[in-house]
Amino acid sequence: MLNLPTADHRIEPYALQGTPIIPRAPRVALTRTAFAAAHVVSDPLRERSPWDTRPAVDWDATLGFRQQLWDQGLGLAEAMDTAQRGMGVDWPTARELVERTMVAARAHPLKPRVASGAGTDHADPATLRDADAILAAYETQMEALEAAGSQVILMASRAFTAIGADQDTYRKVYRRLIDNAAQPVILHWLGDMFDPALKGYWGGSTLDEANDFVLSLIAENPAKVDGIKISLLDQAHEEGFRKRLPAGVRLYTGDDFNYADLIAGDGAHHSHALLGIFAAIGPAASQALEALALGDMDRYHRLFAPTVPLSREIFRAPTRFYKAGIAFLSWLNGHQAHFIMPSGFQSSRDITHYAEVFRLADQAGMLAKPALAIDRMKVLLDLHGIS
Questions:
Q1: Is 188 left (phi over 0), alpha (psi -120 to 50) or beta?
Q2: In this structure, is the dihedral angle defined by the CA atoms of residues 97, 102, 107 and 113, taken in order, positive or negative?
Q3: At what angle do helices 323-332 and 351-363 cross, to 10 degrees?
């Protein structure tokens, strides 16, 4: 029994009630491509001035976290915003992360898919004042990722919105990157709820203009676009957008509120997945996708339904702080020995939030080691003066 804080400032006793879902590999081939976006695990014994210097990474724990996702048949979205790109993790760390991950992926028996984020975050923002400079910055990272053997995700860059780029600027940069990629890329449309600096991305004054522009960009060379990840937390928008995609181009949902319905689809169209929440709910995600492949929609929805409230709590506003919930569950489940994040990012959420994540994770069967989870939750409660 734990005494957990509530949103209305009370302390209530809570006893575990869920049944953990045991992780395992899918027994059939999945019918959806599913990338889990994973975080990095800090090494707090080597951290020095964590706000001012490169993060110290526990490489064994970081790669071990990825191994257990691969063991469950999931792909990996590497070095994305879930890994605190631009929020504690710099480009040299991200590059090393990708290089280490690709070595591990090639050695894994399931030969998992890995796609990694290329952006512009290594460059001084003051130098990214035009299309040529932004393009050169992207190409630097893209070349490094391709050299490591990874597929490329063209991450949304704050450089465009910082200069108020018009659609001609976006087209010049993206056309070159898409056409010159070694293998088809994944585009990345991240809403301002995830990063306020991306408001107005794609240069249109309205969402309809942004839609039309991106679709025209894809249609110019669809063979070089694997898909587009959309993270706008708007189910109706995603459903409308994916109907207009050229044949063979995937919609990768990044909607951590509505993923279950979007992945299931409407009978005519469906979304694939590139989701931060899949790193936290790997067993449910893997086994729900297996049920979908087997045509067992009842089981699909039974597995996913209790994870949706958990995901909505982890990704609640301010949504950009969701990484703390991912790392918190990793700690509760024994994937790392501590709850310390690059730049001390664990402080971005309060104890009431963590208590609610604990409750919802239990009810979704996402506390793999209940006794360990209780012990670690007690530690966090004690640090907040709750006994």
A1: beta
A2: positive
A3: 60
By CB atoms closer than 10 A (0-12, 13-18, 19+), residue 299 is middle
Cβ pair 32, 263 in contact under 8 A: yes
For 141-158, the three-class secondary structure string (H helix, E strand, C coil) is: HHHHHHHHCCEEEECCCH
The domain limits of the chain are 24-317
Rounded Cα–Cα distance for residues 289 and 297 (Å):
10
Q: What is the CATH number of domain 24-317?
A: 3.20.20.70
Question: Which residues neighbour 325 within 8 Å (Cβ) at sequence distance 6 or greater?
Answer: 280, 313, 314, 315, 349, 353, 354, 357
Going residue by residue through the chain (387 aa), what tens digit of pLDDT does each one get? Answer: 899 999 999 999 999 999 999 999 999 999 999 999 999 999 999 878 878 778 999 999 999 999 999 999 999 999 999 999 989 999 999 999 999 999 999 999 999 999 999 999 999 999 999 999 999 999 999 999 999 999 999 999 999 999 999 999 999 999 999 999 999 999 999 999 999 999 999 998 899 999 999 999 999 999 999 999 999 999 999 999 999 999 999 999 999 999 999 999 999 999 999 999 999 999 999 999 999 999 999 999 999 999 999 999 999 999 999 999 999 999 999 999 999 999 999 999 999 999 999 999 999 999 999 999 999 999 999 999 998
Give the side-chain half-sphere CA count within 13 A for 21.
Answer: 24
Cα separation, 207 vs 334, whole angstroms: 42
CA distance linking residue 377 with residue 283, whole number of Å: 21
| Residue owning tokens 């081939």 | 29
pTM: 0.96
d(Cα 294, Cα 289) in Å, to the nearest integer?
A: 9
Q: Kindly report the backbone phi and psi dihedral angles of residue 125, in degrees, each rounded to the nearest multiple of 5, phi listed first.
A: -55, -30
Q: Is 275 helix (H, G, I), strand (E, B) or coil?
A: strand
How far is CA 166 from each of CA 58, 125, 160, 210, 229, rounded to the nearest angstrom?
41, 18, 8, 11, 21
H-type helices in 72-130, by residue range? 91-107
What does DSSP say about strands 225-231 and 2-5: parallel, antiparallel, or unpaired? unpaired
Query: In which residue are the tokens 């024994």 written?
Result: 334
